[in-house]
Input
Amino acid sequence: MTTPGATSTRKHTALPKARTLIEALPWLTRHHGKTVVIKFGGNAMVDEELKSAFAQDVAFLRHAGLRPVVVHGGGPQISAQLDRMGLTSEFKAGLRVTTPEAMDVVRMVLAGQVQRELVGLLNRHGPLAVGMTGEDARTMTATKHYAEIDGERVDLGRVGEITQVDTGAVQALLDDGRIPVISSIARSADVADAEGHVFNVNADTAAAALAAALGAETLMVLTDVEGLYEDWPRSDEVISRLTASELERLLPELTSGMVPKMEGCLHAVRNGVTTARVIDGRVQHSILLEIFTDEGIGTMVVPDEPQEREA
Output
């Protein structure tokens, strides 16, 4: 029996949760009010549990005082719809050859399927998300992109290369407390284009261009790997931190799938973005692990000036 005034120690089972929250405090302070651009792709787009966890992470960022922007593509969904319509999916230099018929499907799937689903998942956590495409309010304009294969210029159809980003509509949504969810489609930059052509733009490239134009604190690219491997396939050791110059030297050695992601990271940090990260979208809550923990995960790219690792 405990006598009055005696002290006793209870075992508080929730104490580890409190410690986790406290660990996040420095990162919450550092990132409060900052813009974070997240490229949504890979397995996270097609696995139901990962999609739900992604939406929770992004909603958490918003409620924690950050300003998240989501940019997405939809390669698997586009290929599936083209297949259902009897249209062939063709890729050259890692990019989808986009005929006018395929462009109609790209537009329909990105803006009418992938984006709507993602907006719906985010809005389970409050009236947060607003969907738009890069062609809305001429947010992204582009010119025709040609690939170079074996020294030859190859026509990819309606594949675009971003020439300009107008952040006005995105900034207005952020200032209103919303989460913009942007499909990687761009309007033709050609003022003489009376038909108003639109272009299919690589989502990694679009996210990087938008992050730079917004002056974002961080660009995060979700992938289906743990990060950039140091010596793949001989080793699965992940490079945790790279400067822009170090990454530039590595680019010629990378596999085709990683090139647009890492080129996007390089473009971002060389154009004002503080950090760019490639993280494993197959890990639930990987975004929160990267931003709000001391260890972080994935590969972080920083400008050439020496910096401490930031979360």
The chain has a mean pLDDT of 87. The first strand starts at residue 35 and ends at 40. DSSP finds nine helices and 14 strands in the chain.
